[in-house]
Amino acid sequence: MNDQTKHWIMAIRPRTLPAGAAPVILGLGLAWEQGLCWWAAAAALACCIFMQIGANLVNDYFDYAHGVDDKDRLGPDRVTQQGLIPPGQVKAAFMACFGAAFLLGVALVYRGGWPIVIIGLASIAFAYLYTGGPKPLSYLGLGEVLAFIFFGPVAVGGTYYLQTLEISKTVIVAGMGPGFLAAMLMSVNNLRDIASDTRTGKRTVAVMLGERRARIFSLSLLLFSWLMPLVYLGEHPAKLIVIAAPLSAQFFKDHWRAISNAPLDKKMNLVLAATGQYTFVYSLLFAIGVAV
């Protein structure tokens, strides 16, 4: 593997992709008993992956352009800031990813109609405006809210709708599970970067809350995610296996402890990666519990 390929893999951040696919998996699990449209399932998953990659590249490009990334950055290396890939190429790559997601979305509109148009365009706008544009949404304390919405009820509900052409309150509530975990990912990321974000004027929720309350906020989002399978179980008592989703959190308990009291240094990247892994495991187990 040559250096250029390694740099693009670094920019794409493949470790984030399973967490991005998690709500699609849960949506498919919720639709399983009604039968799946496999081409729509594959297209929705691919669209989600392209959107996640595009968002990662947008973050890489615009955090550098806005002067947020510097030599003291604690997060994973950014290719634009380090000069590993020219900014123009990174911009072209995220435009290509959004273009691919758009084309897949056009195909999905054939299946789901105008609701998919609205979801698709709103998702692309969110992925770009999160760190792009003159007033990035992530700099205004909206990161966690938007992550919850678009990687939770919207992604799960949209996937379910593409399969069944209907929606229900139960699906939306179940979708809040990965939504809370997506918001937690954002929150842990912002907790790690609280010092640099304060210095550069990036007004995240963590900056507004302060370190101690930001730690509590991150763990509260984890606790809220555990409630969603319990709510689902209350409506479907036979689906006891959904309990495996919150119970699997015990395998990550050292990382939750780190959120509570560990120093905010580069080791928090391991906590962030573990949170992404748990998001995937949680959604997969929730989906299996619903489907069987």
Automatic annotation (TrEMBL):
Under the heading Pfam families, the entry gives: UbiA
**Gene name per UniProt:** menA
Question: What membrane topology is given?
Answer: Multi-pass membrane protein
Q: Which domain of life is it from?
A: Bacteria
InterPro entries according to UniProt: MenA, UbiA_prenyltransferase, UbiA_sf, UBIAD1
- This one is known as 1,4-dihydroxy-2-naphthoate octaprenyltransferase
The transmembrane residues are 38-58, 92-110, 116-133, 145-164, 170-191, 212-232, 268-291
Main location, first listed in the record: membrane
Q: What is its EC number?
A: 2.5.1.74
- Family of this protein: Belongs to the MenA family. Type 1 subfamily.
Q: Which pathway does the protein contribute to?
A: Quinol/quinone metabolism; menaquinone biosynthesis; menaquinol from 1,4-dihydroxy-2-naphthoate: step 1/2
**Catalytic activity annotation:** an all-trans-polyprenyl diphosphate + 1,4-dihydroxy-2-naphthoate + H(+) = a 2-demethylmenaquinol + CO2 + diphosphate
> Per the record, GO CC terms?
plasma membrane
Recorded GO MF terms: 1,4-dihydroxy-2-naphthoate polyprenyltransferase activity
Q: Which lineage do the record's taxonomy fields give for this organism?
A: Bacteria, Pseudomonadati, Thermodesulfobacteriota, Desulfobacteria, Desulfobacterales
Q: What does this protein do?
A: Conversion of 1,4-dihydroxy-2-naphthoate (DHNA) to demethylmenaquinone (DMK).
User: Keywords on this record?
Assistant: Cell inner membrane, Cell membrane, Membrane, Menaquinone biosynthesis, Transferase, Transmembrane, Transmembrane helix
One Gene Ontology term from the biological process aspect of the record: vitamin K biosynthetic process
Q: Where in the cell is it found?
A: Cell inner membrane; Membrane
